[in-house]
Design goal:
53% of the residues lie in helices and 10% in strands. It is mainly alpha-helical. The chain starts with a helix and ends in a 10-residue tail after the last helix.
């Protein structure tokens, strides 16, 4: 019952916000186009429900390069454009994920989808997390709102992410999966908006 109702709310909500925010989509798309050569949308393969891969959609925030760069983005990353910094600051680069929600690849709330590299590193934990649709936001997204800044202060961002940040994020995601309810989803969405606008302190608790 919960899954069916949640999917209905996802479809209705994504459709509503895609129409409501269409002027913002158009403005963001134009800004990205004017920021430099490259596609408006960034696509990256992520691991979704039941381990099925899908392309997550974001507004492109980085300069196009022929050479693959690091998977992680840190504060002050020179690859990020001026427009990209604004989009990332206000999470506007995530707006195209409403399309992922409408397609059924994601939900508004659920464990954030990862790239295959990190899923394989924590395969046992992900068996539980991949039983549900990944989401645009979850408790880990709120708790690690300043993740790029944390990574930027480390001499080895990859090591910090794999050994400290990601394990903690997975713990929070597991707690969400075990407690999930529509009430919790609504609270997490409200906390996400509050975190973006800096309204009060964030917490790692899921209830």
């Amino acid at each position: 019952m919960y899954d069916t109702l949640k999917r209905c709310l996802d479809v209705v909500g994504a459709s509503f916000f895609l129409v409501l925010l269409s002027p913002l989509f158009a403005a963001a798309a134009l800004a990205v186009r004017l920021s430099g050569p490259g596609p408006i949308l960034f696509r990256q393969a992520r691991v979704g429900r039941r381990g099925e891969p899908f392309d997550i959609l974001k507004f492109r925030t980085m300069r196009v390069s022929q050479r693959p760069g690091p998977l992680l983005t840190t504060a002050g990353d020179p690859r990020v454009t001026r427009v990209g910094r604004v989009l990332r600051r206000w999470k506007l680069d995530e707006l195209p994920q409403l399309i992922n929600v409408l397609r059924g690849e994601m939900s508004f709330v659920g464990p954030r989808p990862e790239v295959r590299r990190y899923v394989d590193m924590f395969a046992e934990t992900y068996r539980e997390l991949l039983a549900v649709r990944p989401g645009i936001t979850d408790p880990a997204s709120v708790a690690f709102r300043d993740e790029e800044a944390l990574l930027g202060r480390s001499p080895n961002a990859e090591e910090l992410y794999v050994h400290e940040i990601l394990p903690r994020k997975l713990e929070l995601s597991q707690a969400y999966v075990r407690q999930r309810s529509l009430g919790l989803d609504l609270r997490l969405m409200a906390r996400t908006v509050a975190a973006i606008f800096g309204w009060g302190a964030t917490s790692e608790q899921t209830s």
